[in-house]
Each structure stands twice: as structure tokens, then as C-alpha cells.
User: What shape does this take?
Amino acid sequence: MITIAGAGLAGLASALELARAGAAVRVFEAGAEIGARSVSRYAGGMLAPWCEGETAEDRVRIWGAEAADWWAAITPVTRLGTLVVAPPRDRAELTRFARRTTGHRGLDGAGIAALEPALAGRFPGGLYFEREAHLDPRRALRDLAQAVRDLGVEIVLGTPAPGPVDLDCTGIAAPLDDLRPVRGEMAILHCPDVEIRRTLRLLHPRVPLYLVPRGAGVYMIGATMIESSSTRAISLRSLSEMLGAAFAIHPGFAEASVIETGTGLRPAFHDNLPRLALRGGTLHLNGLYRHGFLLAPAMAARVARHFIPETSNAHHRKRHTA
Assistant: This one.
């Protein structure tokens, strides 16, 4: 039996890969329901490995290249790509973004309007990453938990791990000295008068912002790279910046209703890459940073290989199913 602390994104993805490999798995979750305590509930759900190359190492693109297919077997995935735009005064940011990334093609204003008619006349140019995708994080986490249960994994809710576990996936709460928190902030808007179908990234010299459609006129707008350990609610300045960004994308957002705001502390190591770390007999999967939904599948596969090496599958399956 392999025991896991934390039924968030990392814990559930690992449980799925372990169960697929034939292991018996039990997951302990301190929250009373799936997602209640998970920072992933405030994620954008962007499966955007090529866009992430703007600030991340190439390993992020490589590890995340198959994420959309992995998730599509579990939950609905929207495969309409990512559109990156910048206000005319920030065209230099768009040029810089293009130099630092791959997997895109340039668009003029007419090309942007062909993809997103609501943006006709709004931006003179942009970048289109057509192989990228997005999902609804909260639904994806629930669907992942159901897929895990369907494979016979026991998820014990409302119960912290009673003692040492085989795998710790508790995020920023984990006892790892080299973790640091990166604050993510988001707002969910209802604006049925604006129809945008794909993820938009609006480039800004200080804080990159993104808009992700959730369907039925609902959109999430957020910022993910705020170096802070504060757990307070979103500040008026941050909310104003995000709402201003939405207005810059389309003036129709001025009439949007703010459904929800939220913040979360994402765990990161100094290089902003996730890692597996063995401490006192417990394996830790941590440091997913802003790449949770993108990199969780690849990292979970590494967890499964750790516990059930391909060269001795039969031995390990017998050991962990006994």
C-alpha cells in the first residue's frame, strides 16, 4: 500500500499514475472535500508549454507537451490555442515574447479578428500558439478524483495523514526548507456580452495577465508571478489592475459582474521547476509553481517510476498490493 498526503493536483495525479501501474494507493486529505484547500482552485488551467518558454526552461515545454492529451482522457479540454496580444504602447513586449518562445505564428489585426471577432480593431498584431489548450481547474480536479476512485484508490477526506507517508504532496505546507511561496491572484467575471473562446495573454511590462474563458459568459482573469508570502485577500490595486486589463482587452468588460476573487500561495523552488525530493523515507513531489496542470502529469509519471521501476514491475506490484 502506497500512502499519499494531500489530495490536491499533485497527490491525485500521482495516485492515478500509481494505480494505473497496479499499486494499491490510499490518499489522505485534510480538507473536507476535494479542492477545498487546494491552491489549484485558483489556477488558470492553461496547458501552454510553448508560451511558458518566455520565462521557463525548455524542460517545461518538453515535460508539458503531452499534458493536453493526458487531461483529455479525464476531463474536457478546450484545444483552441493561446492568443498573445499587447497594447500598441507595449509592442516591444510582444517582440520580446516572440523572440523567447517557439510554436507560434504572427498575426496582424485582421488575423486576430478572424480568430476572435470580438477583438476586431482592438490590437494591431499578436502571436498565436495554436497547439495550446486550457481546462476548467475545479472541474478537472473533481474529475481527476473520480478517475482515481474508479481505479480503486481510497481517498480519506477530512483526515490529515496519521503518520509518515510514502509520498508527500502537501504543497507550501510541506516540511521543505528550500520552498518559497509565489502568490497568485485571480478574479472570475461574468460578461455574457463579450464572446472570447480561447485563452488570451495580455503582455504588461510589470505583471503579465491572462484571461481564460470558462463558458457561458464566464471568464477568469489572473496574475501568477507575485513574489509574496501574504495570505490576505486580493488588494484593491491588484484587482484594479486585473479589471483594467480586462477592459483593455475589450471595453465590454466594464459591464462585467465580479463573481469571485481569490489568492493562493504556489510552492516554488529557486529554479521554478518541480522536483522529487527524498527526505527521511518520504518522497516529496513539490514546486509545481505556476505550472501545476501543465506539469503534474509528467511529474506523476516520475513518481510511479520511483515506486514501481519498469525493470521490476512484478516485484513492486506484489509488494504494494499485498
User: Anything to note?
Assistant: The first strand starts at residue 2 and ends at 5.
